[in-house]
Design brief:
- The complex is a heterodimer of chains A (138) and B (406).
- Chain A has 138 residues and is mainly alpha-helical.
- Chain A is built from 4 helices and no strands.
- Chain B folds into 2 domains: 188 residues, no CATH class; 167 residues, no CATH class.
- Chain B is 55% helix and 14% strand.
- Chain B has 13 helices and 11 strands.
- In chain B, the strands form 2 sheets. Chain B has a 9-stranded mixed β-sheet with strand order 6-7-5-8-4-3-10-1-11, with helices on both faces.
- In chain B, helix 2 crosses helix 9, helix 2 runs antiparallel to helix 11 and helix 7 packs parallel to helix 11.
- Classes of the chains: A mainly alpha (138), B alpha+beta (406).
- Chains A and B meet through helix 4 of A and helix 9 and helix 10 of B.
Chain lengths: 138, 406
Amino acid sequence: MVNRIITGISAIVAGLLIAFGPQYLFRLCGPSPDGHWMVCHWTGRAEIGVGLLIAALGVGLLIFSSEQVRLGISAAIILAGVLALLLPAILIGGCASEGMSCRRISFPAITVIGSLTIVGSAFNALRLFRAKEERIRV
Amino acid sequence: MYGRPHFIFSDIAVCNLKRSPFRTAGLISIVALLAFMLFGGSLISCSLFNGADGLAKRLGADILIVPKGYDQKIEGILLRGEPSAFFMDAAWLGKIAHFEGVRAVSPQLLIASLNASCCSMPVQLIGFDQETDFIVEPWIKTALPGRLSDGEIIIGGAISGGAGSKLEFFDREYTVVAKMENTGSGFDASVFMTMESARTAAEDFIARGGNLTLPDNAISALSIMLNEDSSPIGTTKAMNEHFGYGNSGIVVVPAKEIVSNVSGNLRALVTIIVALAAILWLLSILILAIAFSVILNERKREFGILRSLGATRRKLASLVFLESGIVSLFGGIAGVFLSALLILPFRTYIRDTINMPYMQPSVIALIGLTAGSLILSFVAGPIASLISSAKIRKSDIIDVVRDGEL
């Protein structure tokens, strides 16, 4: 039960940070003076979707007691975490210069949160898998 | 037929650690903090040295001449890539070229691009004269065998894109023909073009209503290379005396002074980082040693049972040693991982905060730093458990059983 609460809440917090962090906390580049949006803006929009998906999966970790279901949810969080990393790095990208706010702060913050989400979920999946194996052996 | 039953001490060590998860997590956290500081400190120190080294190599010039009042601006451009635009009369080129001790002189025209739809990004645009240049071309010869044409640009290492990609400045498109290697200096966030292209960019900016006055025959700075027997400080003094310091409208800046200022600040910073890491290493060993000693007293009963089951004192000592080794291994890996995760992606933010040239080391150097930090944090646990292990080896089974009230 404790594990369910810890992993579930961690995933929800990580998901919300990925979704709304670039909008409010570690902000992306704003529009140029003429109102033109830069590339990183669209990466931020895509991260809202991925972040909310991770948060929803985190709710799933809280709700479901079946270890097999939680194992599947953890695997899904790992994949969503990889997607969160790929959006700024490869799939959409950001502004051209390293000095821009998105590449200085927002993308590194997403990298840190995304990586911790992946590692945390991988540990949880491994723990659930080993618990399942142990039960089969008994 | 059946194997002789025996204890597997590594399993006992793992079980012991699992049995007290909070204690184990606490010990792992201490080692993780140590590894975090060791790796983080050495990575930042290494990056600062690389940055200073990159700036010294890339600068090339012995002396820089800029318009009066812009000596801080040129430092900002060189160290941090802060975009700026300023001008002086190109007639200075002829005056300086014939000055005693000057081997080569090359002009640059500096234009700042904007954070607007007209421009791909706000960067420093640097126009350089290909006939006299000795700063840019030595670094791009391999990437650009021919000459740079108007409308073509070379980008610094911190700018996305490569040869063939297009960038827009003041609504005019430029083709990237080469990309420079990262140096950790302000050059990484700069775009290099011909003098004619830079002049066109400035005119485009003015045409778009930009607040800039571009005089005829304007240049922004002069880079000077001296003869081998001339000293930058001596020539700077002679130029100031000759042209009238403060009245000539120019400032003569010994370029190496910028580098030596950076190196001086760097040495002080690195000394603090190394001292902190050393203090933390010793402190961690001390805390771990106290923790293991306290844990040992709590576990006398357990050791008594193991001794009565036939475990030798040597085996018990190695059990403590093994537990501390496992704690150190996991703590070291966690600390290095977290440190790398925080420091590597935030390199630009760190560089801007420290305000010094900053270039992260190569992959091979990073592997070396990781290995060094892991080894130092890994040995912390076993070193800290030496006293506890020695106590066990000296203690007698009777004492252990009696003290454990078995």
